[in-house]
Amino acid sequence: MVCAVPPFTKRIEIACKDLTELAFFPAFRTAEQLLPADHLYAGLRPFYQARAAVNKGFKKSRFMTLPGFLEPLKAARAVVDQRRAFYLNQIVDYFPDRLAGPKWRGRCRIEGIGHLQAAQQKRRPVVIAFCHFGPFMLLRPWLRAAGFPATVLMGGKASRRSPMRRFMDRYLLWPKSPPALYHDHWHEVAENLKAGHPLLVAVDVPGGKQIHLPFCESWTFQMASGAVRLAIRHQAELIPCNIIDEGNWRFRIRLGRPVPRDFLTADADWFRAGKHLLDEMLPDFHAHPKQCTTDLIRCLKQNVIAPIPAPCVPAF
C-alpha cells in the first residue's frame, strides 16, 4: 500500500524550504525593483555557484550510462552549472506579475506563438505538452505574461500544494485562471480547457499509461500518454513546447507544430501522436544537452538485445 502522506523527514525538508523561500521572497522582490535584471543576476550568481558546488558534494553520481550526446552531463562541472542555473531561474518565479512589464518583456522570445493564436481564434482548447527540460518551471509565468493564461496539471492531490506555493500564486497574472490543477480536479480541468486557458502537461513523468518511442540508437523514450488522452477527450490542439535558458535570465520558448488531427481521433494510435511530440522536442535536447534534467533522463530506457544463441552442434 502506498502512503499518501510524505515521510516525516520529507515533510520537515519541505517545511524548511518553505520557510527559507518565505524569508527571501520579499527581499528578492525589493531587490528586483531597485536593480536592473542583469545587475541582480550578476550579484546572485556567485552565491548560487557556491551553493551548487556545496550541494554537489552531497549528491551521488546520477547515471551510469547515457546516450552519446548526453555524456557531457557526467562531468562534475556540468552538474554544478546545471544546478546553479536551476537555483537562479527559480528566482524569476518570485515576480511573475512583473514579467509583462518593459523591464522583463524582451527577456523571453516565443517562437511559434502563432499556433496558440490560431487555436484561440478557432475557440479550440489547447493542451501544451512539455518535458522537464531547461527552466520548465517558468513556462507558466512567461506564457501568462504573453497573454495566455496557462495552467499546469500537477500529479497527486490539491491538498499537497504547499502553503508557500499558495502564497506565491496570488502574484500570478490572470488571477481568475487557476495556477495549477490536480488529478482530483478533473471537472475543473474540463472547465478550464473549455474557457480557453492552455493546460500545461508534462510528458516525462512515470505515472499513468506510457508510450514507448524510439529515442536514438539503442535507446527508448518512455512518454506519459496523459497529454495525448486529454487532447483526444476534449478535442484540443496538442502543441509541443520547450523553454531554453539562454543565460543571464534570457529565455526562449519554442512552440512546435501541433499534432495532426488525424493522430487525435478516438480510435487513433497514441504512438503516432507521441512520436510527433518527441520529434518536435528532440532538436532542442540535442542542441542543449546540459539542460536535460534528471526527470527527463529517467524516461530514457536502454534497449536490451537478447544474445543470439549459439548454433546447436550435433555430437558424433
Question: What can you tell me about this protein's structure?
Answer:
- With about 325 residues, the chain is α/β, with parallel strands linked by helices.
- The protein has one domain (about 10-300).
- The protein is about 40% helix and about 15% strand.
- The chain contains 11 helices and 10 strands.
- The strands form 2 sheets. A 7-stranded mixed beta sheet has the order 1-9-8-2-5-3-4, sandwiched between helices. Strands 6-7-10 form a 3-stranded antiparallel beta sheet, covered by helices on one side.
Our count of domains comes out at: 1
Order of strands across the widest beta sheet?
Answer: 1-9-8-2-5-3-4
In N-to-C order, the SSE pattern is HHHHEHEHEHEHEEEHEEHHE
Number of separate strands: 10
Instruction: Briefly note the structural class of the backbone.
Output: alpha/beta
Low-confidence stretches: 1-5, 306-316
